[in-house]
Each structure stands twice: as C-alpha cells, then as structure tokens.
Write a structure and sequence with these properties.
The chain is an alpha/beta fold and about 375 residues long. The protein has helices at about 10-15, 65-70, 85-100, 100-110, 115-125, 145-160, 170-175, 190, 215-220, 235-245, 280-300, 330-340, 370-375, and strands at about 1-5, 25, 35, 55, 75, 140-145, 160-165, 185, 195-200, 225-230, 250-255, 265-270, 320-325, 345-355, 355-365, 380-385. The radius of gyration is 26 Å and the shape is elongated. Helix content is about 30%, strand content about 20%.
Amino acid sequence: MFKVLTLNNISVVGLERLPRDKYEIASEIQNPDAILLRSFKMHDMDIPESLQCVGRAGAGVNNIPVDKLGGMGIPVFNAPGANANAVKELVVAGMLLGSRNICQAWDYTKNLEGDDSELNKLVEQGKKQYAGFELAGKTLGVVGLGAIGRQVANAAESLGMKVIGFDPGITVEGAWALSSTVDKATSADDLLSKVDFVTFHVPLIDATKNMINNDRLKIMKDGVTILNFARGGIVDDDAVLTALDQGKVKAYITDFPSNQTKNHPKIIALPHLGASTEEAEDNCAIMVADQINDFLENGNIVNSVNFPETIMPRASGQRLAIANKNVPNMVGQITTKLADSKINILDLLNKSKGDVAYTLIDIDGEVDDEVVNSLKSIEGVLRVRVL
C-alpha cells in the first residue's frame, strides 16, 4: 500500500486515478511515499525518509526545494501544459481589458448617479475618455514559447495580431506546435523594441528576474501594454510604475498584485487567476497523479523537473529503479554487482539530467536485501527501489 500525503486540496478527479486498493491518501499521514501539492511552500519542511517522489499539480515549482530533493534521489513531477488553455484565455482577456479600458469604464459607470435620463447623458459624455483600440494589426511579443506561450501566440494570430516570439530553449516538438507565421526574435531586446503588447511565460529564475526594467523600457515603444501572468518578479514594479506615470506604458495587467500596484488607475491587478478554472485544476491533478502512479508502480519518469525522462516497457520479473549521481562508471558498477550475485539482466535503460542519473533494470528472478544493500553501498548511489 502506497501512502500519499496531500499538502493542498487536490482535485478529486485526479485523486481517483490512484486506486484505493493500492493507495492511502490523506492530508495527515505518516511516512508518505509521495507528496501531492499545489502552492504549499515545502522549503522549510522536514523531508520524510520514506519519501519517494513529489507531485506538483501545476507547472511552477518555486515552492518546492527541487535541488535538495534531487540530491536525495527524489524526483519532482509537475504538470506542464495542463493549465495552458486557462492561462491563454486569461491573457487574451487581459489584452482586451487593456486595449478597451474596460475596467476603468466599468468603474465609471458604477459610480454614475441620477435617473435613467441623466444616466444616459453622463454615459454619452463620459464614453470618449475610455475609447480604446482594436487588437487586429497590433504586434504581440511572447517571451517563452512553452505550452502556454505557444497557445497564446497562436490565439493572438487568430485575432489578427502579428506575433513575435522569443525562446532560446524551444524544442523541435515545441516549434512544430507553433504557427509557422510567428516571427522569431533574436533576443529579448530585439522583441521588446518591436511590440505593442508583451506577455511573459517563463519561470522565475536569475535570468528572468526583472526582465522588464528601466533600461529595457527605454527601448520599447511608447504606449506599450505589459502583461504578466507568469510569476511575480519578472517585471520590476518600480520601473513600470514610473513608466506608467510618464505615459511610456499604456497599461500593465498582472496576476501578481502588490500594495504598489493594486490601486494604480492604469494597472489591472488580478488575484493569481491564471490557472484558476475547474478544468485546469482537474487536468493538473490527473496528469500529476498518473505520473506518480507510473513512477511508484513501474519506476517510469515523465515530466520531472529534476530527473530525466525515463520510460521502459516492463519485462517479466522484478525491476530495479536506481537514482545516482551523474558520474562515470555508475552503470558499470551496478551491473557488476548484479553479475557477482548471478543475476541476469533482461533489459536496462539509463538516462541523465544535470547532476542526476537514473537507471531502470529488469532482471530475471528476484533480488534479496543483501543485493539491494550492495547496490546502495556504491559511492554515488542515492536511492535503490525494488519494484
């Protein structure tokens, strides 16, 4: 029986992917094999010795000590793309809110007083100050062309916008999913100098912190609209506030409000609504539950942020799942230990990612505790599981 600790409310649709005859799931449980969470901050949490994996029902993993867990041989799974449609729709809504001054016009209308005749006059008198512009023909810059960024780019083109994208790490698979008419910028600065709107879909790391700052605002068009539905910290709030007051930036739409930004008349600040749809929460929970299920039962790894993708069809007999430091001759030492114990290997797959390597070995027969302890004694081996 596998034990799963939930640190946040996880969609029931996802939890149902973990059969109750094999999984015990609770918000308070001792010695868990897996942890499922959404926004809970794990950085100050004591990691149980029993823990085998962590699943984040969402894309970002800033709230999880990924490097620490990787060093312990524990993969961290996430759900990239499961919330992409939800975020895409909110980005499109954000562009419409900004281009048509909808929030400001709504506030104006709510505060009107008088009978209907007087109200009609005030409506006609006031509407000119909220005149906007259409998205068709405008240029959108998309920084980060992962699952979300690609959907945003394709949706914007369907609205008649010109789209420029920048992502130095885009994969071949990602490029195939992107409209062929999206222009490719050579750098972030190249993109920012050409756009009427810019939206970010990148993780918050050192390279992306304050991507919009005073220097970059100087090279951008006057009247640009900035959208941030990625992470707080990607946009320098101080720099944008100054640019808004000077008229350099027309509007700032953010999913990460602060006391500085929440009441500014040219800022639309939302309470982190990007993935807040029932569909997205279900999709994220289903994806990460399936990944944890396959890892705990078969050792396969899909969508891990700190371990390599490792998928091997199951042969008969037992399977060994071994996590180790990515150093030379680890596979040789492992297979030698098995050979010394007269254990025949049916199939083997070894993959690496950064400082971590992972090996799946299907064997003919069974291993005992002596063999497992022998494998664990190899310098650099982080974890050994028998499945």
